[in-house]
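Need fresh eyes. Consider my entry:
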Amino acid sequence: MAGARLEKVTMQEHMAINVSPGPIRPIRQISDYFPHFYPFAPALLRPRPAPLPALPNGPAPETALGTALGSLEFTLLLDQQNCVLHCTIHRAKGLKPLDSGSIDTFVKANLLPGTSKASQLRTRTVRGSRGPRWDETLTYHGFTCQDAGRKSLRLCVCEESRLRRRAEPLGELRVPLKKLVPNLTRSFNICLEKRRLTKRPSSLDTARGMSLYEEEVEETGEERGRILLSLCYSSQRGGLLVGVLRCAHLAPMDANGYSDPFVRIFLRPNTGKKSKYKTTVRKKTLNPEFNEEFFYAGQREELAQKTLLVSVWDYDLGTANDFIGGLQLSINSTGEKLRHWSECLARSDRRLELWHPLDGAPPQLGD
């Protein structure tokens, strides 16, 4: 506009024009533009990996120093009616192998407390994957709600290696079973932890390259396994029906880690071959199913004064059979054994099934 008066702008006002306020950004270093010229640059100048999200059912993994061992997804189901615990191993994520390259992994499950090898189950080996998927169910037979109240389950992810003689653990986790709801499947996704050491290795063991991890030894009174028996006094046939249904968690007697079990039953005192029976042999198993029934004739009052001997054996060809465990049912028994025997003879035509732990006392077959 003609005749308009020009206003003077000071230097401070000129510097403030088109300036948007905001946070002050750090000045980029020369190493950011030429990182390959500075291989020994401090770790603070290098970009940090993004932290992993926290898992819903476990603690947040350690990521600052890269010490996360990975996570394991699995489900647990307590079948109260069949007295079975199902543990389904789905998959693992973010495993860190001991050596570079491919990784061959499997999962080993163990009920604690427990020292018997029969209580240790494992999945198949998945080869060449740091995120293996198994989708395999491990089953513990003879597992009751009372067991869930005092036991826990340890799951250990192990790595197989051709260079080492034994598998090495990558991480483990423990789940208390007392909070399981019967007949309700519960899902878990838990971070693995370092395996607990129970014994410090000596320098000689370390020099020989032996494993630094020792198996935990915990006391248990069921090292030999369990047996499921059914008793029924038949008024129509006039005698006792004894059913040998199945066994669970039997102690291994053979070098392959299994047994060839069969069951013998004997009613004492009695004479003749009709007082002694035995089931068929089940090959290479620690959880055999028999489903066989035997009959003892006699009146209820007469049978109440006798003793039923049940013993489990490992069949060996050409040598003596190995005794695994046994039990006695009579009016002189205690606990669940006495209840099973008494209730069976107290009522007619009523089948009663019950699990019994095996003890290490060999049966006396003589009268």
Notes: The mean pLDDT is 77. DSSP finds six helices and 17 strands in the chain. The longest strand covers residues 84-93.
